[in-house]
Fold:
Amino acid sequence: MHSCTSFRIAALAALLSPGISLHAQGTGASPYSAYGFGDLLSSGQVSQALMGGTGVGFTEPYSVILGNPASYAALARPVFEVGTSFRNSTLEYPDGKAKSRDANFEGFTFGVPFGHGKWGMALGITPFSDVDYSAKTSSPFDEGTVQYEYIGSGGLNQVFLGLGHTLFEQRTDSLGNTGSRLMLGADANYLFGSLEQTRNAIYPPSGSFVNVRAFSSLILRGVSSNASMIWQGDLTHKHIKDEDNWRYNIGLTAQLPVNFNATYTKLVNTYTTSSETETFHDTVEYNNGVKGKVDLPIGLGVGAGIQNSRWLFTAEVRTRDWSAASVAVGDYSLGSQLRKSMTYAAGARFKPSVDGTLLQRMVYRAGVRHFDAPAELKGQLVSANALTLGVSVPLNHTQTNSFINIGGEFGQRGTGSDDLLREHYATLWIGLTFTPWKGERWFTAPKIQ
Structure:
């Protein structure tokens, strides 16, 4: 009986420890979301996601670029965007495979230019991170086998309101060379959400065993801001009015530190199961509403691009040193050692013609991305690589610049070595970009002739 009691203590310690054995069978969206603050979602709306999630080094006249408020000053018309994603994943373990499916609402954004084209405003709500995993493993002991279950859910959302302003702009000459332009912008953000974990130790039904369940919930609320700048100029000059010239863009972004107010709840109890009915026995530990602080460090990004009336090419680098994050709320742990994250991305956009057939008026988008995640597992860096492809299909180009954005992302995360899983995934993106009919003057004051 002494060995059985010792095993119960070991099982309880395993449940309360932050780590999860990723070689276990998984049925959630991704066991990798168990670490840190979950899967970080920064791809923006669908039109931005289809270009590898880039957005630092270019502007869009009919799209709100998430995380780059300076680009709001380049909006040509009021625009409303909404999107969703559907993801299929195959998780490869050393001892087998598992499949999962997931669907996410990507939020909505709204942008509007004003001030004679010198100003732009945007607001919206978008996901910041996602937690969704379910994993199982087992361990033998003298009187049978104990099953461990690890389940996580939740995530963080972000509400933002921002302004962009053209601080400096050269006058366009008679040939149409627009010269240089400097745009600045800033967002005010409110982040909120919760990270929930449930861990079960389930013993054989035969014998005088009780199961153990450990539940924890971390509720986060915090404000932050981010700022950006874009410098644009002529890379080539027109010599005749109808000539198409190339322009360059250089962008910088800064995501300022986030200071969360945190509320932590933890409940550990014992129970038994009979005919699928759970009977509560005892409370091992209970902490309700423990207050604390969680601080996230600054994030930085730099990007550049070149474009003309048909083509756009852009590349960028973003980084955030998550090892500087601090968690001071009870005994809560992020589940792994955090380190600096790095994102390298490149994207392209092509529009054959302003007029013509539907295929000529479509906007074709593509991108690639490499992401070094902040979670460090068993001393290894977890990296992901992805390819994106898609199109923006005009709805009625003669009256509006509204589009249906559709495409896919295909990627891989993890190495499959040292008991770490390899994840292959395919994501279908579907979004709507809506602008008013060109005869409707939204947010323009009427004038008496």
Remarks:
- The first helix runs from residue 2 to 16.
- The longest strand covers residues 144-169.
